[in-house]
Specification:
Elements lengths: L2 H13 L7 E5 L4 H17 L2 E8 L6 H14 L4 E5 L2 H6 L5 H20 L3 E3 L4 H14 L3 H4 L5 E2 L2 E2 L7 H10 L16 H16 L3 H30 E3 L5 E4 H4 L4 H16 L7 H13 L5 E4 L3 E6 L2 E6 L8 E3 L4 E5 L4 E7 L13 E5 L7 E4 L6 E2 L8 E2 H7 L4 H6 L2 E4 L2 E5 L3 E2 L12 E8 L2
Parallel strand pairs: 1-2, 1-4, 2-3, 4-6
Antiparallel strand pairs: 5-6, 7-8, 8-11, 9-10, 10-11, 12-16, 13-14, 14-22, 15-22, 16-19, 17-18, 19-20, 20-21
Helix pairs in contact: 1-2, 2-8, 6-9, 6-10, 10-12, 12-13
């Protein structure tokens, strides 16, 4: 068996890339790496119990792209494999926008591959990254100042995407193609130092090989070590966060700063990244400076200190918590009518409020902070559920005089985010209940109440 096939077989076994009976979609551009992968997998598939299909996306950027698409379809046919070829409209779309060409092409390619995988019932998509691609990615991210997660570079397995050639060098690939007289296409743009990756491949790597002829392997080993350590630290951080992170209003995430402050600096930074990812879904746009600022000056600063993060996020300190939230998730002003006997749901805050008249036999005492009992005869104006407005005040039960709502919230050390989302029940425009907190004594049921109204609210999950 050729050396490349041995390397790929070991990689597949080491990373448990496939299971017998699976259908694997091979992403084939027609270049040397993907053609080597296609032919190796075609040879290994029967022994591994795999079904193989081929997919090729023609981006239409180069005049020869149509010829390459026909070439891939022909090679798939020669191997007796089903193949799907699609032409992208990316060229036209880019002409009308300012998208990054490489990023847009990558996104379009993976979207196509997932569609093709669905067509063939494939549970794995194989792509042709090699050890040299791994080494080049490592250097690119080192130049950007990436941490362990970035320097882990290209994972052998990420979800449905697998990389069977990730332990094989480009020289091994070319030797395999030559020995087997396997044709392939060469993309002339890869021979020009127009992009950073090409510059590294064509200019920097040859210089590094003068110092270490096996530099690609050395960098791949470093990436493997960092990936394994990063996996451990990520799991360790997630376990710690389970005890100090909670979900707040408006889909925010809150980190308890008392426990956060006792963490090592390295774990603090990971915790910040993890909290941001929980809200945003990814870490795009997040820089080293954002993490340092959040884990240090903001966490250690005064309540209210914060900063905006690319992607519409805000992170700020608020009464012993580090809050992460999206500005677009904050509700605007809302107001919903509530009948004396009926229900209203406030979608923007995720609560449902219900009011009903109590019978004379039912006790007038609320069972918890999510309930309040009012004198029906005092609820003479329209009843509404809304959020705070400037100048709001009320007369809290158990307290003398009136209290501005803003001051009441500050006294409670309620974060600004929660002040904005805290629901109020009003009657005739006056605050009757700061829901979950305190009732206004002008509307509360008492010993002289003849007809009582029970109002409850719940947070929808």
């Amino acid at each position: 068996m050729p050396a490349l096939a041995d390397t790929v077989r070991r990689t597949i076994a080491r990373h448990r890339m496939f299971a017998p009976g699976q259908t694997v979609l091979a992403a084939v551009s027609g270049g040397p790496d993907s053609m080597a992968m296609l032919n190796v997998l075609a040879g290994l598939a029967p022994g591994l119990g795999l079904r193989l299909a081929v997919a090729h996306l023609d981006h239409g950027f180069r005049p020869e792209s149509g010829e390459e698409a026909s070439f891939v379809a022909g090679e798939a046919g020669r191997l007796g494999l089903p193949c799907t070829v699609e032409k992208s409209d990316l060229k036209d779309r880019l002409a009308e926008s300012h998208e990054n060409k490489q990023a847009a092409a990558r996104d379009a390619r993976y979207e196509f591959l997932y569609r093709a995988a669905l067509k063939y019932g494939a549970s794995r998509v194989a792509v042709g990254h090699t050890a040299d691609d791994q080494a080049e990615t490592y250097i690119m991210r080192e130049l950007r100042g990436s941490g362990a997660q970035g320097l882990a570079a290209i994972p052998p397995v990420r979800g449905e995407i697998v990389r069977p050639l990730i332990d094989a060098t480009r020289d091994e690939v070319l030797a395999y193609l030559e020995a087997g007289n396997i044709p392939y296409k060469t993309d002339p743009s890869n021979l020009r130092p127009d992009y950073l990756r090409n510059k590294i491949r064509l200019e920097l790597m040859p210089v590094l090989r003068e110092y270490n002829p096996a530099v690609s392997g050395a960098l791949c080993h470093a990436a493997d070590i960092l990936r394994e350590e990063d996996d451990f630290l990520t799991a360790y951080t997630d376990d710690l966060l389970s005890g100090i992170v909670s979900t707040g209003p408006a889909r925010s995430v809150a980190v308890a700063l008392d426990a956060f402050g006792r963490l090592p600096v390295a774990i603090k930074r990971r915790a910040v990244r993890a909290a941001i990812k929980r809200v945003k879904g990814d870490l795009s746009g997040l820089g080293y400076g954002h993490v340092i600022e959040a884990a240090g000056p903001i966490a250690d600063g005064e309540t209210g200190r914060g900063m905006d993060i690319p992607g519409g996020l805000r992170i700020e300190k608020s009464y012993g918590r580090l809050l992460v939230y999206r500005a677009e998730d904050l509700p605007g002003d809302y107001s919903f009518g509530l009948p004396l006997s009926g229900t209203v749901t406030v979608d923007s805050t995720g609560i449902t409020v219900e009011a009903r008249l109590l019978s004379s036999e039912e006790p007038m005492a609320p069972k918890g902070p999510a309930e309040a009992v009012f004198d029906a005869d005092r609820l003479t104006g329209p009843i509404e559920i809304r959020n705070r407005r400037p100048g709001d005040f009320f007369y809290p039960v158990g307290m003398d005089g009136r209290k501005k709502l803003k001051e009441y919230f500050i006294d409670l050390k309620l974060p600004r985010l929660e002040r904005r989302t805290a629901p109020l029940m009003t009657c005739g425009g006056e605050v009757a209940w700061v829901m979950g907190m305190r009732v206004d004594r002008r509307f509360a049921a008492d010993a002289f109440t003849k007809k009582a109204v029970l109002v409850t609210y719940k947070i929808n999950t």
